Amino acid sequence: MSLAGALLSGDVRALARAISLAEDRDPQATELVAELQPHTGKAYLVGLTGAPGTGKSTLADALVKVIRDRGQTVGVIAVDPSSPFTGGAVLGDRIRMSRHTLDRGVFIRSMGARGHLGGLAAATREAIHLLDAYGRDVILVETVGVGQSELEISTICDSVTLTLMPESGDAVQTIKAGILEIADIFVINKVDLGGAEKTRRLIQDAMALGPKQAWRPPIVMVSAANEEGIAKAWEAILSHQAYLKESGALTSRRQERVKQEVVALVAERAREDARRLLDGDTVVGRRLRDNRNGKLNPYTLAEEVLGERASQGGS
Ligand SMILES: Nc1nc2c(ncn2[C@@H]2O[C@H](COP(=O)(O)OP(=O)(O)O)[C@@H](O)[C@H]2O)c(=O)[nH]1
Ligand SMILES: [Mg+2]
Asked: At what angle do helices 56-69 and 230-247 cross, to 10 degrees?
């Protein structure tokens, strides 16, 4: 059976293999995703963001239980740019998540960059499509919790939670960094440690200063490790989903996502073409290598690459 056929029939090894191809940025993965496209669009995508250590993995684990109790299947992708099988945090995740290993309704995978820096977002997108085609009802995407990935995640997912913890200063940092805007739901974790109320007020005050929005992100207080408040957190995500559907924002969000994805795919292809043209036996490649005095203008060369690429029919 083809890999696509096996994946659609529910073969979990086919799914794992396909995700590995995506991780390796193997063109086969992109072809596979394109082939599976008609089978996607059914999963609900939830992004879990927040600084490292705030409890995203613990929250993911607790959410998996709630989602499974409600009879839905779930896939978890933990995005970690370091190698997928090194690093204490990821190891910790795997031990924690191991309570779900016998449940066929749960699939958990951490995604590494595998040396393809910059390819992680593309690999993550492909993994999401693969899990979607595989038939998962819900896909949780845990980010590594720094910078760019936080902003990208909001374009990849339908609903985004931002996890904060009390007294860590990360709430203040988050507000300063302008990351507040990506949150559809705020999750204040580790309420068992105390000080959560202060964090809640910080967030509330910061939101009051911001522009009025049709969706007011709720603030949910949880203790993920003690599995307290998790059902409430899931309810908040579901209310956001209902809001997106009723307001039509789900359609526009997904359109925006397709647009971003097209831009990313075109950029990835163009980057490869540029390297190939510059490394190859081409006019522009020779000009680059013949350059002895270091006076070549990269802007001019870029124009030449684009021109040469167009004259070759674009690929
Ligand atoms: N006290 C307390 N600790 C928690 C809670 N949730 C998670 N932790 C701990 O916080 C640490 C970081 O959690 P983790 O889920 O790995 O955070 P991540 O880096 O955001 O994925 C771990 O040691 C967890 O056991 C909680 O509700 N209360
Ligand atoms: Mg984690």
From this structure: 80
41-246: CATH topology is Rossmann fold (3.40.50)
199 alpha carbon – ligand 1 mean position (Å): 17
30-75 pLDDT, tens digit per residue, is 999 999 999 999 999 999 988 888 999 999 999 999 999 999 999 9
CA distance 183 to 237: 11
Between residues 3 and 178, the one the model is more confident about:
3
The answer, yes or no, to whether any atom of ligand 1 lies below 6 A from the CB of 62, is: no
- The reply to whether ligand 1 has any atom less than 6 angstroms from the CB of 57 is yes
Query: What Cα–Cα distance (Å) separates residue 227 from each residue in 23, 70, 191?
Result: 32, 16, 11
- Residue 37 DSSP symbol: G
Confidence bin at 159 (pLDDT 50/70/90): very high
Write the DSSP symbol of residue 280. Answer: S
**Cα 64 to middle of ligand 2, angstroms:** 14
Ligand 2 centroid to residue 108 C-alpha, Å: 12
Range(s) within the chain of domains with CATH label 3.40.50.300? 41-246
For ligand 1, say whether the CB of 91 is within 6 Å of any of its atoms: no
| CA–CA dist 154, 245 (Å, integer) | 17
